[in-house]
Fold this protein.
Amino acid sequence: MLSARSLFREILDHDDSFQLFCSIAASGESQGGWENARIAALVPHGLRHLAPRIVRHGADEDKHGRIFHALLRHRGLHAVTVPADTDYTMKLERLGIGLAHDKLRRAEPLTERDIVVYLAHSRVTEQRAADQMNLLVRHFGDHPEVGRALRMISADEDNHLAYCHEELLRLAAGGHGRTIQRLLRQSALAEIAVHRDVSLAVMAHMGRLLRWPAPKSAALAAGIRSRYAYERFAGWHRMVSLRMPERRDALGGGSGPGAGRSRPGVPVATASPAA
């Protein structure tokens, strides 16, 4: 029977598939670290209070990349080249989601709208990351080889998601509400399509490494497409709602009321339904 637990167990137990999995994960995290470092350096003057949080976000992503490289070294493996069809970050960029790398390479300060774009994009992608890590922790949080790493990364992703909620709500209160709703919807609908395509590509590569029979590969592909259909119909709504997180100031650096305190999550804003 196919399940998330049995599938990841199979990937974990085979060196070649584990090597590809960790390489893809490390590459994505390292890209996120670079992006956040550049955004922190280019934050506009009026939003400089965000810079320490963005720096912390990037440092966490860099740390995650190092963790995946350490898992590879522990097995005597090295990172391999990530297939282009599994590059989640660049696929999103090609669809115009988030801030383009060309913009981040310049020395020009970002605008307030750029920061709104960054946070809206992050709110969506961090939701995906938090959901996936929570799933892995549920099944493998006690695994002797990867359990500690999964728990650490999962806690960080939860903090990143809380930070995005809190900062977007502040910006919405400052007059960016309609823009945030539109960007969240645009990002979510693009992300679920990219996630489908990347998942299909990753499973195709894993299938070749693990010599999966055609019926198994077909069943996994059907499951991925079915998940996309659900998300396109209704599931994307979880990626665009905003609520004040239980943990305030999750990435530190805050000094305003509520910083470091917990309060019940209250739904605040939701993007309009899909047409």
User: Anything to note?
Assistant: The longest strand covers residues 267-269. The mean pLDDT is 92. The radius of gyration is 19 Å.
